[in-house]
Amino acid sequence: MAKVLIFHHSMGLTEGIHTFADELRKEGHTVFVPDLYEGHVFRTIKDGMAYVKEIGFEEMMERGARVAHELPSDIVYAGFSLGVLPAQKLAQTREGAIGALLFYSCVPAAMFGSPWPSELPVQIHGMDADPYFVDEGDLGAARELVASANQAELFLYPGDQHLFADSSLPSYDADATALLLERVLEFLRQFK
């Protein structure tokens, strides 16, 4: 079974992130869910992003890298929104990565100084009318990444919610999350 390292979104390590991790564990996967905010959880994306600006984006990614370097290298990196930054960077640049799951976000591969490894499997999930995902360039970056990789999938779900797979938030969409989870579990089956 796969080893999966999940990085939380800008609101912090919410109960919904734990619930998602538990769904993967039920299928036998080993899941690591570090708290990059050192206990802080925020009520809004805006508040969470203010905290990130205070500590710095580079520090956020460094915290993710420090956690990853304590774990085996043959891992699937997963990130939710802001958590995509360390997940995508590590998947792209850390030797031994076996896959990536990018939820609600994607950045141009060039941001990390190298192209996406063409043989590294990746899934990207987002809502087709999510203003963060669609209007801020993430969808375009996702399409470019998928076009450059041999094992890449982009899944768009109907709706405009950003953190739609976090069951502890008002933005939660149960139907979209069920389909997302089904696709993620199918993706992880290749690493048995």
UniProtKB/TrEMBL annotation:
InterPro entries: AB_hydrolase_fold, Dienelactn_hydro, Dienelactone_hydrolase-like. It holds the Pfam family DLH. Keywords: Hydrolase. The keyword Cell inner membrane does not apply. GO terms for molecular function: hydrolase activity. The keyword Hydrolase applies. This is Dienelactone hydrolase family protein. Residues 4-191 form the Dienelactone hydrolase domain. Signal peptide: none annotated.
